[in-house]
Protein: Homoserine O-succinyltransferase
Amino acid sequence: MPIRIPEQLPAQDVLLGENIFTMDSMRAANQDIRPLAVGILNLMPNKIETEVQLLRLLSNTPLQIDVDLIRIDNQAPKNTPQSHMDSFYHDFSSIASKRYDGLIVTGAPLAHLEYSEVKYWDTMAKILDWSERHVQSTLYLCWAAHAAMYHFYQVERVLRQEKISGVFEHEVLDPHNELMRGFDPYFYAPHSRYGHITVDEYNQVPGLSVIARSADAGAYIVSSQDKRKVFVTGHPEYDPETLNDEYCRDVESGQAPQVPVNYYPDDNPAKNPLVRWRSHGSLLFTNWLNYCVYQNTPYDLNLLANGASPKR
Structure:
């Protein structure tokens, strides 16, 4: 089934070019079903690129999904036209009374800032608390995963001197967890972060468990027992060239970044990246939508705040 996105959203042309079926509001209104409502709180500076990446992964499911793009403040974002934000994004205040089956909170380039120094931290904390009452399951990516761990459990990340950057091998620790259904015992996924929380620190939080980890990059997927919080410390949504773009950007800015691990053949940036994470990235999003969202959300979203049992 398709995802419903706003008409004229630039991602629509990209997805249609990849033979991914999207639907506008008028056509969706004629579907006699209750689609899943999914919000995307996009904290990345290049909003359009991130939209395409996430919508691509959300599309690989038989479920119909209505997507709301959410902004955290009114400041003009870097690398994204203000007109795009005004046309396609909702201010948080405008959707605060709404309930969602699922919410995705992206990463953000805020690695070297303490949470209290982030200009929108108060709003971020408010949204995290709001999600407890208004969202069935929230998927936190990269920086957002660490931010949520700090907010909900007071677990502090450690900032490394060198960035964890590359495509790392991961091991499935709990093959019976629904999020891992269909995964190979070992798989690859990209990371791009300075922050780090150890596997033991995650596992010491009651109700949380690390279900996939890397010997080199640490915990990758962490889930709450009730499936309402899923923390992903890497970037399963990344395009083939995203790590390359980040590396080239850092080089051009005068930094001396390490070459992303296991990304270029022979670790040679002159060669095209070796892509080997996209199938498992797609599977992760499909499993999250099915087992954490669809199978657990009440048919009437107004029952979310009451802790209603699944109605599917």
